[in-house]
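Render this sequence as a predicted structure.
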Amino acid sequence: MMPQTLSFPRVPWIAWLWVITFTTLVGCTSTLFHAPSTKSGIDLEELESDDSQNVRLVRDFVMPWGTNYVVLEGVALATGLSGNGSDPPPSGQRASLLSEMQTHDVRNPNFVLASADTSLVLVRTILPPGVQKGDRLDVEVRVPARSETRSLEGGWLMQTRLREVAVLNDSLRTGRISALAEGPVTIDSVFSDSEDKVRDVRGSVLGGAVSTTSRPLGLVVRSENHSIRTASLIGAAINARFFSHDRGIKRGVAIPKRDNFIELDIHPRYKHNLARYMRVIRALAVNESATERVERLELLERQLLEPATAAPAALQLEAIGREGIRLLHLGVRAEDPEVRFYAAEALGYLDDAAAAEPLGEIARNEPAFRWHAIAALSAMDHISAHDELSKLLHVSSAETRYAAFVALRTRNPADPLIRGEPMGDAFHLHLVTSNGPPMIHLSRSRRAEIVLFGPPMELDSPDFIYAGKQIMLKADGADRLRVMRFAAREEDREVSCPPLVDEAIRKIVELDGTYSDVAQFLQEARNKNYVDARLVVDALPSWGREFRRPATKDGQAQDKPERQVSSPIPDLFEFKPFASERSSDADDEPLFDIESSDDDSDRRWWSRVGDWFSG
């Protein structure tokens, strides 16, 4: 069911969202509504100067727009709770939900809410920068603070409409509907060995929301530079570098809308790394002469080979395009690992074959640069990138293997190496041949999927294993497995299969098992040592990794032995905003369990997101 008006109590997890959403939106859009400047704009004579020191970049005149994350929220009804639900107490949330139910001609809505099989829930999702209408998003679901609901296990989120919300003048204001959410709820305790009951009343619907709007990216011309000619010059600089062909017609990505705003289409090469896209665009030169270009290339060559300046130099060379490739080739042959990485990353987004091998080596050996290297490989069309990603499926690192899997699926979902099979409407199952240690990967973000890395995995004659509350598996001799379903008011059902993990998963789904049921089965099989494989959940990147610089040739430590990675984590591997920040481990392996975030860690996350786009 779907809310029409919302009235949330002031609980901590919502309160900080009001502030962040409102201030972020104001900070990113307010310059659009300034009165036009009386100045004619930038000094064109200065732009046309032969002095290379006066070459100006796009970032000198604009600020990014549309790069904030927009929080959407709603109140909804979860059903199918098998007696674990509750009748919500009187509140604005209950009134809102009742009103919405009545608009859909639900009979006896109070009776429905009073059922122990239903619960009022709070729902939220996030619209990322550049989202397109029809894109799927993760949904977070949790019960309100005063709810008596015991568990959301087995629940189904009824369709709900999600809106932007803000507290203005002590009253709650809602925006237009921006997403619709619906689907099976996977509770947090499925991914945890913890006995914490709070995990039973919060969960997610993976890919359960559909965006009903598109969010364009853009550039806001600073107030002192407003002019039609300025916007035209900037648009021309961008379109000379980034364009596409529509039915044989060349079309640039930049569309000047007025003297202070330029709308940007997303170039396909950067669709999974929008932060980098904005940085490259802002590193483009405006109205640069041929002489200035030659002089700047000479300067960038020197800067690229110095570790301290390699990152911005590589970014400018990537912005230059084909003329910068020769210098980037020098960078990938440098001795310094930082220089090699930044040069190879830029070459990757230029789809140059020379990037593939060094990016593959970096992904295997340097955790700080791993995600950036694999994302760059995923952006390449060259066959050498596919070869390097394929090799990464066989390493021992859990996160490297899963990242390579995601990159290969992003390049081509039908790739025989990673192609999966749908398990009904519940999730996807992927069998990935790998020479590394056997591993089972469960996803709790973007989409429900299970990836089995290695040869076929055997189950070691289990006495019994539960898959949810209604399905049980047990050995039937040495070479068969019985899978049985027992449910009230239903006939008992039973099927059998070979004692293999993938076959057991298929039979659980055949008996109407859900993603949560299969996840519980896998966790119990691992805990009881019935399967010889590692089980990991969301092998995603950790924030704050630093590159440890090697000692000098004489064995002395560097003056600055640790350096922060200069690039943001790509959207391809981006953290779920509602998950906690995890510190990197020495061996760089993901934790099995992922804790929920507190207010402070989420504030740090939001702050960093803004910094990456404007840095």
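Summary. Confidence is low (pLDDT under 50) at residues 1-53, 579-614. The first strand starts at residue 62 and ends at 65.
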